[in-house]
Design goal:
By secondary structure, the chain is an alpha+beta fold. About 25% of the residues lie in helices and about 35% in strands. It is built from two helices and four strands; from the N terminus they run E-H-E-E-E-H. Strand 3 and strand 4 form a beta hairpin.
Length: about 110
């Protein structure tokens, strides 16, 4: 299993198609089938690629500043975390979350 970080503007048409299929599979009828985000376009994603070079999971990440009782708080939000139905219960979702934790280490992320 390989986890890759990819910025939204680097996603080519082939990966876009794979992401669209994964997101629609995981979120069924509620997910729009004309884009690769539900409500918020992520700044970047972590994608999980299996040993056969197939996309099996993804998570979008959105970096923003929010107001918490008058104090600015830097938040890295998780968007549309999902794992393909055929690859669930193998720790892929946990691996993606762990990758986010590692990524945040030493960065300006409050929450």
């Amino acid at each position: 299993m390989k986890i890759e970080k990819i910025f939204e503007y680097e996603i080519n048409s082939q990966l876009r198609t794979k992401l669209q299929h994964l997101l629609v599979e995981c979120f069924t009828d509620e997910y729009p089938n004309d884009r690769i985000y539900f409500k918020q376009l992520p700044h970047f994603r972590f994608i999980a690629i299996d040993d056969k070079s197939e996309l099996v999971g993804q998570v979008g990440l959105d970096y923003r500043v929010m107001n918490l009782n008058g104090k600015p708080v830097r938040v890295l939000g998780i968007i549309d975390l999902c794992v393909s139905k055929m690859n669930r219960l193998q720790g892929i979702g946990s691996l993606l979350l762990s990758e986010i934790d590692d990524f945040c280490e030493g960065k300006s992320v409050d929450f």
